[in-house]
Specification:
This protein is an alpha+beta fold and about 260 residues long. The protein has a single domain, classed as Fumarylacetoacetate hydrolase, domain 2 (Alpha-Beta Complex), CATH 3.90.850.10. Helix content is about 30%, strand content about 30%. The strands form two sheets. Strands 1, 2, 3, 5, 6, 7, 10 and 11 form an eight-stranded mixed β-sheet that branches. Strands 4-13-12-8-9 form a five-stranded mixed β-sheet, with no helix packed on it. Strand 12 and strand 13 form a beta hairpin. The termini are far apart. The structure holds 2-oxoadipic acid and magnesium ion (MG). The site of 2-oxoadipic acid (OOG) has 15 residues, from strand 1, helix 4 and strand 6.
Length: about 260
Amino acid sequence: MTATDIAARAALLEKARADGRPVEQLTKSEPGLPLDAAYRIQDEGIRLRVAAGDAVAGYKMGLTSEAKMAQMGVREPIAGVLLRSMRAENGGTFAVKGLIHPRIEAEIAFVLGRELRGRVTREEAAAACDGVAAALEIVDSRFQNFKFTLPDVVADNCSSCGFVLGAVRPMAGVDLKAIPLEMSIDGKPVQRGSSADILGDPVLSLAALASMMAARGLAIPAGSIVLAGAATQAVPLTPGAHVSLAAGPLGPVSVRAL
Ligand code: OOG
Ligand code: MG
């Protein structure tokens, strides 16, 4: 695929996002869209937003739990980019008007104190972290009916839209394989899970991200925020909803949709 083809598809998805109007899946007209071309479309979309004044804040893994793989019908982990403009304050608000069909989901986030480069073990990934936090992620697919195949969702920066981090805590003494997660909307529990639902251990998701980026000649820079992927299904986010996530030793984190 030529650089012009990549740029045209990135521009299409960026316009869909900016206008809040979904588009047809790229793979409808291009069934054989290769995964590496999809990542190049994602890169170009990020380049456009950074050129417009945004900045990279970190990365996200997606489709790392059975709940999400089953919900979306795509069974392979994906990696995307978080931008500074996507971040909302814990206890603050997030504007959903003008979005396409936003959903919210329960996540675990890491903050890297050191760069992660190359293929790393679980222990190396954990050692690079400054801290861990419970997090909420808002996803909003730019594709009609929130439906996509693997290359589509990768090209669309993995449906990235917004995120909220709870207080960042040191990793020591926290059993990251056993954090209970309960997401509530307006005080009513809507999803329950555990950090173990994320690849058995969310640190393995961070290590997998390092490997996926290494395969593309990239590292995860120091200071990056990394979302490990939702432990539970995503639920629709409507204006006025107050979403909170209880996360045992990590929580809580909350946001109100405007
Ligand atoms: C794709 C993004 C998946 C996760 O945590 O699994 C994701 C989507 O579901 O739209 O963010
Ligand atoms: Mg997510």
